[in-house]
Amino acid sequence: MSSSVQSQALAVCDARSPCSSQGEATVGIDSRVGLVWRGQAAGLARLGQTLISPQGRFMLGDPFGGRALGATSTTLRETLPLVEDDRSVEFRLNESLRVPASISQAAAASGAREIYYVRDFQLEGIEPLTGVQVIRLRQAVPGRGEPLRDDGPAAANAIVIQNVTLSFQAGTLSEVIRPDEPLQAIARIRYRGAGLLNAVWEVATPASTRGQPIYVPLEIVRRYVGGSEVILTSPQLPNASSGLHRLRLRFLPPNVIDDLPTLNYRVSDAALQRGNEVPAIQLWPIESASPLTRHSRFRWQPVPDSHAYQLEFYADWPGETASDRPSERDGRQPVDLGLSPTTGQLLQGQRREASPSASLLNHLQPGSTYYWRLVAIDINGRVLAASPLEPIRP
Fold first, then answer.
1. How far is the C-alpha of 376 from the C-alpha of 281, rounded, in Å?
2. Residue 99: is it exposed, middle or buried by C-beta count within 10 angstroms (0-12/13-18/19+)?
3. Which terminus of the chain has a smaller tally of CB atoms within 10 A, N or C?
4. What pLDDT is attached to residue 45?
5. What share of the chain is helix, strand, coil (3-state, %, to 5)?
6. What angle do CA 258, 360, 233 make, to 5 degrees?
7. Share above pLDDT 70 across residues of the chain, in percent, rounded to a whole number
8. Is residue 350 a contact partner of residue 299, using CB atoms and an 8 Å limit?
9. Is the distance from CB of 191 to CB of 226 less than 8 angstroms?
């Protein structure tokens, strides 16, 4: 008897008896997927037993150690035929699996394009064995409840991100705020196709922006879109810690994009104290300043103890009259000009020169007059020095 038991074996979904599935689950819609479970049982001489799988479970990430999304209570069973020798018995079980909308939505929200469906098969006298099926997910066309096929062009079967621009609500690329002052950002996304847009707002706080920024999630965005453009508004941004902050909108799979745009803002008490003044930064003439291009170079005398510099551009003169020039105040400059810059550019590290970025130039109207200055910032986000305002034309 012992030798007979030792010779018994069970195989499910292996190379000799592959399992298969027909159809895909549509995200956000109750779906039916046809599954075929195949396997072999050996060492069943003169017994004739019933193969049972009491339930199935949906798993995300890993069929064995991943995140459990839910389970089914449907039992699969098949009585295996009697045999008179130790030959293998092949079996096949069909299952019409219902994939609930809540399961597919939870998986899609995590950026997954497929989930695992797992069943344990039991046979008396043989160790239970686990079978795994892969269920692919596809997006639905908003308002129609119809799935997007994978056999069409990219523009028809998925969202293709074409362009992303970020700015603060005032239209600026950089801001300086007091602690507890509210601040939000806006993302303008141009895309092709239709389906579920998955993204997450992330921020790096001063604890990491002093070196390599470490981004942490603020809010997950899940929105069905169909058209060509969508505008997203961030949650209220962290404003309790003084120093430099970085903000980005990261897209989750399958809409991963490289070179994510980022915004920078500074939280500082001293930076916004009216009448507060700091030493002036000594500037050198700009190379190729007329007109301003990517090849122009701003140059200055480095400021001791600075951690970063910020170029600020103003569309209007930030004061009562142009004659009240901050540059005439005994070599000192005000920290607060009473007006948010139109655009800006953060320059990390000890620098002595820089060229304007393409993003900065895109926010300037050719032929218009702007006023620019340079601000030096220490590791805690405090303003150390500022240059006089100077006119410039892009």
1. 8
2. buried
3. N
4. 52
5. 10, 50, 45
6. 60
7. 83
8. no
9. no
Look at residue 322 and tell me whether its pLDDT is greater than 50: no
CATH 1.10.287 fits 2-138, yes or no: no
Q: What is this structure's pTM?
A: 0.41
- Encode pLDDT of 58-113 as tens digits: 999 888 888 899 999 899 998 887 766 667 788 899 999 999 988 988 888 877 88
Average pLDDT of the chain is 80
What burial class does residue 317 get, using C-beta atoms within 10 Å of its C-beta: 0-12 exposed, 13-18 middle, 19+ buried?
Answer: middle
**What's the pLDDT at 82?**
74
Residue with tokens 């020798």: 85
As a whole number of angstroms, the longest Cα–Cα distance in the chain is: 108
- d(Cα 180, Cα 177) in Å, to the nearest integer? 8
CATH number, domain 270-392: 2.60.40.10
Residues 132-185 pLDDT 10s? 999 988 875 433 333 333 333 333 336 788 888 898 988 888 888 888 789 999
Q: How far apart are CA 253 and CA 60, in angstroms?
A: 14
- 7's tokens: 């010779």
Structure tokens at 47: 């017994």
What's the CA gap between 111 and 95, in Å, rounded? 27
In this structure, what token pair is assigned to residue 178?
């007091």
Contact call for residues 137 and 113 (beta carbons, < 8 A): yes
3-state secondary structure of 44: coil
Find, among 131, 133, 135, 132, the residue nearest to 51 by Cα: 131
Q: Three-class SS of residue 23?
A: coil
Question: Any alpha helices (H) in the chain, and if so which ranges?
Answer: 2-7, 101-109, 154-157, 206-209, 358-362
91 closest CA partner among 136, 53, 118? 53
pLDDT category, 118, cuts 50, 70, 90?
very high
Q: Which residue has the tokens 């220490």?
A: 378
161-267: which CATH topology?
Immunoglobulin-like (2.60.40)
Residue limits of CATH 2.60.40.10 in the chain = 161-267, 270-392
- Taking the CB of residue 352, how many other CB atoms lie within 10 A of it? 12
Beta strand segments in 148-234, E: 160-168, 174-177, 185-192, 194-204, 216-226, 229-233
**What is the distance between the alpha carbons of residues 83 and 234, in angstroms, rounded to a whole number?**
67
